[in-house]
Design brief:
The chain is α/β, with parallel strands linked by helices and 394 residues long. 46% of the residues lie in helices and 18% in strands. A seven-stranded mixed β-sheet has the order 7-6-5-8-9-11-10. The chain has a four-stranded mixed β-sheet with strand order 2-1-3-4. The radius of gyration is 22 Å and the shape is elongated.
């Protein structure tokens, strides 16, 4: 009885969204005013102490283990949680510890080396695992991902014969498309064995071995080689760097980028500096840290980086995650066959809750374009971004 009483007191403080709770003894309580938007069903007694210490982690684990079920939209659950941030996400959580190079590689492999077959089930044909770019809500996922890649490449203003580096190159489509569309010599680096092998296969299949290269390498090691590039992109990788390593990252980019060269940094951002979600850190992105926009912008002048353009793609990522979640659900039986029910529930919660956080929870995603030193040869307007996009549609 005491366990249930403690949960009742906990839930009574969440009033922004009306909801229902069915406890393990079959009793039901409603919270908030109005018709319940979702229902939490306790299939078994869950230790209340875990919720007090880290509510997000405790809830995520209970859902993964089928101790708790959700009836209704996960977005409504997130809406209720985000209105009580100080209670759900403790601001006293410790910051991430410093990551060694080896530990960072292990963290990347934890997420990306789940297997190419798994990601191929629900990503698009390009295997792009980052925010897409939708010109209209009707765009297909593959169309939107190609538009994202093209959007990045246009911002970098690539010219034939230039060199391009992609830090955290994923499955390689950005460097491949850069070579095909702009005639540049492109290099990608990744810490994922699975992504490295798949990218090499793609390069060979497309006959681009002399023009496109991928290396299994840390950006810090590459910076020590003395190689430099005209343009650098980093899409969806900065979240893995870790707050303590931001100066190393910027110093490495400074060493790798030619004077006057452009860098496009594409990263998820918080409104303010805050610790990561404990469930995400434990099960999805160990060692990850999402910066605030001001945190990144504040770093740039220290390395003679001049900000040229900043764009927020928040709703684009919510839509991307919706598409991923839909495709994941379509292949749920196959994923269960490959792994197990716990894995299915973990990824479903991750994809659906992430979409909700971009819509209502304060997450954004920014593309920041900056130059090393002053570059006076850049276009005076952004017309080049959209003129080329319009021409492609004709």
């Amino acid at each position: 009885m005491m366990q249930k009483y403690l949960f009742q007191q906990f839930f009574s403080k969440i009033t922004s969204v009306p909801f229902r709770v069915v406890f393990w003894d079959g009793t039901t309580d409603n919270y908030g005013e109005g018709e319940p938007r979702f229902t939490l069903i306790f299939h078994e007694k869950v230790p209340f102490g875990n919720f007090v210490k880290q509510p997000s982690l405790a809830f995520g684990e209970a859902y993964m283990n089928r101790a708790i079920e959700i009836e209704g939209a996960i977005e409504d659950v997130i809406r209720a949680a985000t209105s009580n941030r100080s209670m759900i996400w403790s601001e006293t959580l410790t910051r991430l510890s410093k990551l060694s190079m080896r530990k960072q590689q292990e963290n990347v492999q934890h997420h990306y080396d789940v297997g190419n077959d798994f990601y191929a089930l629900w990503l698009d044909e390009t295997m792009s695992y980052s925010c897409a770019y939708f010109r209209t809500p009707e765009d297909t996922l593959e169309q939107a991902q190609l538009q994202k890649i093209d959007h990045v490449l246009r911002k970098l203003q690539l010219k034939k014969g230039e060199t391009l580096l992609d830090i955290g190159s994923g499955w390689g489509w950005l460097i491949i498309r850069a070579a095909q569309q702009y005639g540049v010599k492109a290099t990608g680096i990744t810490l994922s064995e699975e992504q490295f092998k798949k990218t090499r296969e793609r390069i060979a299949e497309l006959g681009l071995s002399g023009q496109v290269d991928v290396e299994l390498m840390d950006y810090r090691d590459l910076a020590k080689t003395g190689r430099t590039f005209d343009k650098i992109a980093s899409v969806g990788m900065f979240e893995h760097v870790g707050q303590d390593h931001y100066p190393e990252f910027m110093k490495s980019v400074q060493a790798l980028l030619k004077e006057g060269g452009l860098m496009l940094l594409h990263t998820i951002t918080h409104m303010k500096e805050e610790p990561g979600d404990p469930w995400i850190l434990k099960y999805i992105f160990p060692g990850g840290y999402i910066p605030s926009l001001r945190e990144v912008i504040h770093l740039l002048p220290e390395y003679d980086f001049h900000t040229i353009d900043v764009e927020n793609l928040r709703m684009h990522y919510a839509m991307t995650l919706d598409r991923w979640a839909e495709r994941f659900d379509q292949h749920e039986a196959k994923v269960r066959e490959m792994y197990d029910e716990k894995f299915v529930r973990m990824w479903r919660l991750y994809l659906r809750s992430s979409a909700a956080f971009f819509r209502i929870g304060g997450l954004s995603i920014h593309q920041m374009l900056f130059s090393k030193g002053i570059n006076n040869q850049l276009p005076l307007t952004r017309d080049y971004l959209y003129a080329s996009a319009s021409e492609e549609q004709k």
